C-alpha cells in the first residue's frame, strides 16, 4: 500500500437479546443467561458470550447504516438460533425454555479505510473497531 486514510466511520445496527435458558440434557439441568445478536441489515444471528457493554452517544444520522425492512421479527430469529444452538451443543432432547430478560438496539462502530496500492488501485475496507477484523467493501 502506498497510502491509507481512515477518515470515515459507520455505525452498524444490531438487536441484542438476553435470554434466561433452562434445559434438561440426560439427567443434568442447565440454567444460564445467554445473549444473541441479530444483524439488522441482513438478519444474520450471532452468539454473544457476555452482555454487551454499551454507552449512549449522539452521532450523525448519516453515519448510521440503515436497517433492512425485511428484518421483521429479530426476537424470533434470535430465539430460533438459540434453540438450534442449544439442541446441537447441549444435546437436549426437548427444546429448552427461553425467556427474554433484556432487549437492546445497539450500533457497532466500523472504520472505513481507503487504500491505494502500489499499482494505483483504490480499495476500501471496513474495519471493526473492537476486533480489528476487516473486510473489503465493494461499491456498485
What does this structure look like?
With 140 residues, this protein is mainly beta. Helices cover 12% and strands 50% of the residues. It has one helix and six strands. Strands 3-2-1-4-5-6 form a six-stranded antiparallel sheet. The longest helix is centred in the middle third of the chain and has 17 residues. The two termini are 23 Å apart.
Layout of SSEs?
Layout: E1 3-25, E2 28-39, E3 45-48, H1 74-90, E4 97-116, E5 122-128, E6 134-137
Antiparallel strand pairs: 1-2, 1-4, 2-3, 4-5, 5-6
Strand order of the largest sheet: 3-2-1-4-5-6
Number of helices: 1
* Overall pLDDT confidence: 87
Low-confidence segments: none
Structural class determined from secondary elements: mainly beta
Which word captures the global form?
A: elongated
Give the termini separation: 23 Å
Q: How many whole angstroms does the radius of gyration measure?
A: 19 Å
Largest sheet features: 6 strands, antiparallel
Q: What is the tally of beta strands?
A: 6
Task: Write the H/E string, N to C.
Answer: EEEHEEE
Percent strand equals: over 45%
- Give the proportion of residues in helices: 10-25%
